[in-house]
Each structure stands twice: as structure tokens, then as C-alpha cells.
Amino acid sequence: MCTSHPATSEALLQDAWFSSLPLPMQQGLLSLAAIKSVRAGRRIFSRGDPSTGVYALLEGSILVSGDAEPVKSNALIRLSPPI
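^ that's the sequence the OP posted. Answer follows.
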């Protein structure tokens, strides 16, 4: 469990993918975890950006878009964290 972010650990353990990982991998990911808040309408990353890690959505929702500017017409899916 992540001692610096216990609420994050609990939220991630409710996720089927994360909770199915071997315990050492869960602990490794949690030890590197950093919580970032992103304001509405801000881009998290774009297609072609170099990989910088694994993202987990803890609250709110994100719009996955296939274009440079997120508009309703090119939205692929809106994602929310598991309940």
C-alpha cells in the first residue's frame, strides 16, 4: 500500500486491472505515484507524445479525442473512474 497516499491506494485497489497485478508490482507503482490535478479543458497528453508513465483517473472525467482540439464532434469516449 502507498503510505504517502492511502486514499489513492484504496481507490486503485477497487480497480479490477490494478488489483489483479501481483502485489510487488502494485507496491512498485504506488511507490512512484504522484497525484496531479488537471483543470477542466486542459490536455493531459497528445498523440505522439513520449510515454511518461501510467495514468489513473481518481475523480472527475476525461474526454478522449482524436483531434488536436477537443470538440464534441470528434470525441471518441468520455471516461470516469470506477465506482
